[in-house]
Amino acid sequence: MSIHVAEDVLSQDVQEPSDRDVDDDWLYFWRDYEGKVSAEELQELWGRVLAGEVKNPGTYSVRTLDFLKVLSREEAELISKAAQFVIDGRIFRGKDEFLEESGLILPQMLHLQDIGVLSGLESLGFKATYTSIKPDCFYLGLVASNRILLIEGEDTNKEAEAEVYLVTSIGREVLKLASFKVNEGYLKSVAKDYVKKGFKVSVADWTWVSDREGRYSNRIEITDNA
């Protein structure tokens, strides 16, 4: 089944595939691990892994394959729930009402940390400090799956800060496998936090056109009342 899932994913992908070949050692590990999976949901997961690696070799490390081989169906479902709250590789703190509505209360979040997907749950978390990508004004885009948060301001030296939980390197690779859309209420709540800090903030649809580039459309400005 995993092979069929990979074929289906690749047939629907609009991005151009890489001209590089999948590493033979990686493919050996994939075949060995995938062959021991029986649950249908996990077979689909392994199919997505293969599709991602075929499309862009090096996307999933052998270390991530080791992680996935011991992943339970319940843990995979938990990761899928968390995926809808990831913005630029982070989950923003102070949004418990949105997480709890999706069944992500503290024990579940701590478990995601225990298995190596998140970090920063045991303390006050981390502070993310964002700077402008333009020299003449503040401009920044934070991608959240199918959406993007656009933050703008006149002062290019201004910093946009937020308290966050970090998604680990393995977590980032695993989250690429989840088929999800960002939680819209949560995204707009994060946007409003930056509005209150004096930034002009918009949200828009986001489409990847390559592994490093994308484009946005249907941009909507966020205000305190929006």
Automatic annotation (TrEMBL):
Listed InterPro entries: DUF2806 (IPR021254)
Name of this chain's protein: DUF2806 domain-containing protein
